[in-house]
Amino acid sequence: MSGQISSGKLLTIDGLIRLGHYTIFLCITTEFLVLSQLGNMFFMVYAGAAPTIKTCGSHKFGPTMSSSDICEQIYTLDGNETCKHELEYDFVSMNVEFEYICHNSKYVKHSISIQMLGAVIGSLIFGQISDLYGRKPTLLFCVSGCVLFGLISSFSKDLLTATIYRTIIGLFNGGQIATMFVYVVEMLPKRDRVWITTLISFSPNVILLAAMAYYSQNWRHLAIVISVATSPAILLCMFVTSSLPINENLSYESPRWLVQRGRIEEAHHVLKQITRWNGRNDISSDMIDEVIDAEKLILREKRNRKNYYIYHLFHTRQLTTYILVLSYSFLAASMINYGMLFSMEKLPGSIYTNNIMLGLIRYSVNIISSFTDYTQRWFGRRVAHTKQSLFDLLPLILGLGVELEIISRIATLMAFAMMSQVYIITGMSGNELFPTPLRSMCFSFLQVIGRIAVVFAPQLFFLADLWTPAPFVALILFALSDLVFYLIFIPETKDQPLPERLPTTAGSNLQNLRLKN
């Protein structure tokens, strides 16, 4: 048969998985999962938004007054008389409902940090669980937990109760994020992973969440809307059909994971059904057996290799420099990204419009950067990182020094949107600098550092209590120092051969890991 593909070319599972109907089904499922992750991760952008205090009794506060100046006057007034506050807000947040204003608003920021800590712990716990018990059941359990506790959290009677429920959601959400990334990489065609994960990502869902928040108008309704809107993910993870040729559950376990766990018959069955669902009738059972045998051989070789641990990331002075600089880059990006994210209400304009603009700018930047990287050889990692860092610095400085609201607003949103590219570029640099045995470990280490920074990021804008411009000065220093460290210590890695081995001595390491210019 002329269309028959030679089995000799199908050396791995990647050779079997191609674009088809199952890929479409997987993309639909992934979109609901990403919406769940984004909705619960960004929930406190709206639920933790501080209102503007317009009056305190008969005392009116001018539009040019800063929030810290207003609060100082309120404390002075409260010392002499009790006055009722008139608040202005776009969204009925926890701050508004539970009356956490001025210095009491810090309790809401502390709540956000605790919730983010839950996400860090959840990613570590459920990442291990998915390796032991499978990607699909872990995803199903985590998204079900997010939906259930999201509904329960909407009935919270106070901030403490809401924090407890939202932290539990953070645990499940962190597990979702960690597990889904691995699952999607293992299930999508190799050459289509980048554009699909760019298309289905946080950026477009930021816009969708803004619309959901606009029509919800308060945090309780938003929690319910997020849970209801993402509940189809549960059904898709358990999807069963009798109207299609497969006549069974369409949400399959990762065949790679099944092979790793020695469940060969299940792996064969899953691959057979996926290829059939994708319309690949040219794939025979013998060809699938050959692929599984090849995967088993690769797995056996990996198990026979030396085990590597976190401390091997610091094996030599050069590797230590790389991991420290890249870790700082992730830390700085998270502090800038989430510090601004959870203080979005401080920007001029509507919180809904700002988030829609953020999503559009961020999505456009990701698409343009991906296209430029693919088509232009000169657009390497150092050029890309420098460009993104400058695009962070200039808007932040401009937004700090310009009084015109619209310029300050757009400048800050531009800086905010650029941070997604810093994550991508830094992650690529780590993958291309570290040898094969340490590559996954390096990426995981950077992710943990970034998530730890997210815990502290909501506290960043408390610096304004000491000096009003202090938070933006801190953001500028993070961006500037990241740019300097990266340019000094990180070499260009685009189109360079990936290092394969970890040398046993520092001297040989410098020889083997040196990248050609």
Multimerization status: single chain
Largest sheet: 3 strands, antiparallel
Strand content: under 5%
Distance between the termini: 47 Å
- Kindly name the structural category: mainly alpha
Helical residues, percent: 55-70%
Number of H- or I-type helical stretches: 21
What's the count of strands?
Answer: 3
Strands in their spatial order, largest beta sheet: 2-1-3
Give the domain tally: 2
Summarize the helix and strand pattern as letters.
HHEEHEHHHHHHHHHHHHHHHHHH
- Cα gyration radius (Å): 25 Å
Name the CATH class of the largest domain.
Answer: Mainly Alpha
CATH topology of the largest domain: Growth Hormone, Chain: A
Structural overview:
- With 517 residues, this protein is an all-alpha fold.
- The protein has two domains: 10-51 and 89-304, MFS general substrate transporter like domains (Growth Hormone, Chain: A); 306-517, MFS general substrate transporter like domains (Growth Hormone, Chain: A, Up-down Bundle).
- Helix content is 68%, strand content 2%.
- It has helices spanning 21-41, 43-47, 67-80, 94-97, 106-133, 135-153, 159-187, 193-199, 202-216, 219-230, 232-237, 255-260, 264-277, 285-304, 317-341, 351-375, 381-401, 405-433, 436-456, 470-489, 506-513; strands at residues 52-56, 59-60, 85-88.
- A three-stranded antiparallel sheet has the order 2-1-3, covered by helices on one side.
- Strand 1 and strand 2 (59-60) form a beta hairpin.
- Helix 6 (135-153) packs antiparallel against helix 10 (219-230) and helix 17 (381-401) packs antiparallel against helix 20.
